[in-house]
Amino acid sequence: MAKIAVIGAGKWGQALHFALSQKQECLITSRTKRDIKNFVTLEEALNCPYLVIAIPAQQIREWLKNNFKYKEGQKILVASKGIEASTGEFLNEIYSKYVPEDSIGFISGPSFAAEVIKGLPCALVLNSTSKKVYDKFKPFFPDFIKVYYSSDVVGAEIAGAYKNVLAIASGICDGLQLGNNARASLISRGLVEMKRFGKKFGAKKSSFIGLSGAGDLFLTASSTLSRNYRVGLGLAQNKKLEDILDELGEVAEGVKTAEAIYKLSEEYSIYSPIAREVKLILDGKHPKDSLKDLLRG
Ligand SMILES: NC(=O)c1ccc[n+]([C@@H]2O[C@H](COP(=O)([O-])OP(=O)(O)OC[C@H]3O[C@@H](n4cnc5c(N)ncnc54)[C@H](O)[C@@H]3O)[C@@H](O)[C@H]2O)c1
Ligand SMILES: O=P(O)(O)OC[C@H](O)CO
């Protein structure tokens, strides 16, 4: 009987299912039936002692409420990257109402699903306040993925969510053809910005200069493989957000996370100029006006 199951069969769920099927049988489930090996019902998946949950951040609260009942001894790995826009709550806070803290971990680090599903090498971080969660999950991962451990759950979560907003900014920058200097400046100031934001919530500095922060930011903010970066390219072309997202057909977490960061920054008086401009552009501000304001500020 399989021990591990992936919940959510989007791009990341399928890539993780592929990776976790290399050494053992791994089940997968999603809302709609898919033609994937070892696809099972949600009920069957939820019976596994090890679960990997790969559904978008904005849907998690509702999904947990309607579907999830923690079974004693289960270990959960959260694969989503985002902050809930309606409440500003981090995913670990949402999950804390359903899963004991010593039984949950969060994956972070540079990892395009499109490359993982081809078996290309990468390095990830499994973040959990309990190292036991890392020890339990690590053996499931294939040889082409190196998994590090960190106890900084909040740092990894903020870095993974914030970089999506910065990737939108970077896409806008490239879409406006502002050049390599501008993109490098934006990315490095973005890194400072996410670190400052994280500090307010107790995140460790080291998470931002490692795989979860700089690693994922450099990846996402400089590649058209990133959905968030592509949203930025579309915005620079003055396309409507609705049309960009329709065309994308997949989740771009940075859109809602920009809203969450904006609200949290206002509430806690955190200086977050790039995330703020991304939020304003998503609300209709012209990207060129944002650029002027960023250069001036
Ligand atoms: N794609 C990547 O390269 C990648 C890498 C690392 C992390 N992530 C993160 O993983 C998460 C999922 O991304 P993705 O790439 O799989 O997105 P996707 O758009 O490809 O798929 C999202 C999946 O979530 C499911 N879903 C949506 N709403 C749901 C609900 N209410 N209940 C149950 N299932 C629901 C959809 O059916 C779909 O299967 C995001 O938070 C993303 O940031 C993605
Ligand atoms: O395609 P994106 O922008 O959602 O990024 C995917 C991953 O988070 C990259 O690590």
TrEMBL record:
Pfam families: NAD_Gly3P_dh_C (PF07479), NAD_Gly3P_dh_N (PF01210). GO terms for molecular function: glycerol-3-phosphate dehydrogenase (NAD+) activity; glycerol-3-phosphate dehydrogenase (NADP+) activity; NAD binding. Coiled coil: none annotated. NADPH binds at residues 12, 31, 81, 113, 227, 251, 253. Residues 35-132 form the Glycerol-3-phosphate dehydrogenase NAD-dependent N-terminal domain. GO terms for cellular component: cytosol. It is found in: Cytoplasm. Catalyzes the reduction of the glycolytic intermediate dihydroxyacetone phosphate (DHAP) to sn-glycerol 3-phosphate (G3P), the key precursor for phospholipid synthesis. This is Glycerol-3-phosphate dehydrogenase [NAD(P)+]. It comes from Halarcobacter anaerophilus. The gene is gpsA.
